[in-house]
């Protein structure tokens, strides 16, 4: 009825209707109001394919440009505060690819059009370029929508819904984004590969650069599916985790923990014990542990698994070739795909005076054989905190210096406080809010000068361990020559499939981020290897939905999903349930009745948003929550699962019990109480 009336109206006054519609469309898009897609369908219905497309094409481009100008000259601050995440992404895209980036956004609208208009207004793009690139980019989509509207208008009876024209138009509407994406990807790939000569055939299916946690898994998967794969390592097989990271740190932590437990002997009913030990022997034990684990990551084992392991420095010389330089020779390998797994290294900022001392890092600290009497640990993150406590327990006087207001700043405040409190009890001096300014030498004295609220503080030390974070290895092996971009976090830029700018070159692990853990490195490596080898048929998006991690201090801190800090930052509503380990029988029996299980759930529901565990074996206990989140299991099911008594794992169930009590249906319980009273007569 309305359609017929509109059509009649249009036939009577074509110019007025067309101009009115045109102005209305401009107003809607210019004011960033919703409804443009619907209006485009209406345009098809009233004006037909040709005129509908023309009207919408010009109106949408003019409206978009008005929104663009409004954002640039009037709404600057509002847009900045409202869409900070999208702004950053779009700004970087424009800087990198200019108008072509806008064109692809118009063709495949991964970001809503109104946000594109507003965000583009804050980039350096010229309005004229914005207008014509937008018009060109939106043209194909406009055509598809107008056509769908036209076909809808043609329905005259319910049977018309099944007309081939309408089915075809909506099919096109559905597959258009996929077709557009395919076209954009093909053009993009052509552009990046244009200056390189592709070999006629390849020696290998995959070359993996770096034999750390990520590289080893990528190579292993490739060999398991019978691909010809070469793994290149310039230093030591096993990378950071085995040689300078997880393995030595956990071995050191264990020795230090034993010392601490022995010192606590009286708590366990023993006589006061003062363990005698030789620091050098402890550090030798750490190396023994590394050597014991070493065969797991060795060239011999991987060769047996079907991986060609080469020792030498790799450099990518084209999208399909890698040069390997060893002491003996240089050779070039051609390969269909490349996985970059070059890892990260400790960040040592250029603090004045650092050049005058030998700054220790997580790379070099393992070489110590003499316990530093006074150790200054710079950095309050997980690595700094783990090593600070281990060295303190082994007898060093440790001062930990952190610029922010607390240590472990990614965790909730109460978590940081629990760790800080234990550190303080163990004699570690934690200085938060202290920004390191310089290292000064005064005779034989070494001083770190830090700034705290405008005041200068001098901290004397014998050795300084710099644990200020880790920076990805992105220089010196071909990324610059190939123009592979890095992110703001200085990691190799990848898409959700872990592809770099060149779709056949992938990156995973610390070099790609955003996480810097062994388990995330190997998780990503699976995606990188599978996509590199089978991406022609099917690609898998790296899944970061449930990422756990732990800091192996005492008390241990483990987390999966959201904590309160992140939930607040991301405006996600949550409920908190806490269970204190001081009530847990096993923790009491073990003299470890300290810490908590803290679970965040969707308000009113048992769906878990995240969990933080603090206490003995927190990293082991949290696995129940990791599995629950991964497989959509809620607190009710955890509560309904039998946990062995007496274990620390019961804490997970008791936390679920706390949640259940808080959500007990009070109305039903009142009725049940009445029922019992009635039963008593
Ligand atoms: C002290 C410490 C404690 C840690 N504790 C934990 C923990 O408890 N749990 C956890 O999950 N994570 C922990 N980590 C982090 C973990 O070690 C890293 O996330 C992990 O090692 C990353 O693996 P990767 O393969 O990405 O990189 P890496 O292990 O760094 O491997 C990269 C490899 O690439 C090689 N390479 C680089 N460039 C080239 C080239 N051009 N040619 C050939 N080879 C090259 C390097 O020599 C290196 O061996 C810890 C890290 C440190 C420093």
Give a concise summary:
With 681 residues, this protein is an alpha/beta fold. The chain contains 25 helices and 21 strands.
> What small molecules are bound in this structure?
flavin-adenine dinucleotide
Structural class: alpha/beta
Number of helices: 25
Strand content: 15-25%
- How many individual β-strands? 21
Estimated radius of gyration: 31 Å
- Overall average residue pLDDT: 94
Spans where pLDDT lies below 50 across 5 or more residues: none
Helical residue percent band: 40-55%
How far is the N terminus from the C terminus?
69 Å
The description of the largest β-sheet is: 7 strands, mixed
Q: Any idea what the shape is?
A: globular
Brief descriptors of the model:
globular; five-stranded antiparallel sheet; 681 residues; 17% strand; alpha/beta
Structure report:
The chain has 681 residues and is of the alpha/beta class. The protein is built from 25 helices and 21 strands. The strands form five sheets. Strands 1, 2, 3, 4, 5, 6 and 16 form a seven-stranded mixed β-sheet that branches. The chain has a five-stranded antiparallel β-sheet with strand order 17-18-21-20-19, with helices on both faces. Strands 10-9-8-14 form a four-stranded parallel β-sheet. Helix 16 (413-425) links the parallel strand 9 and strand 10. Helix 2 (14-30) crosses helix 3 and helix 12 (246-263) packs across helix 15 (382-393). The radius of gyration is 31 Å and the shape is globular. The model has no long low-confidence stretch (mean pLDDT 94). The structure holds flavin-adenine dinucleotide.
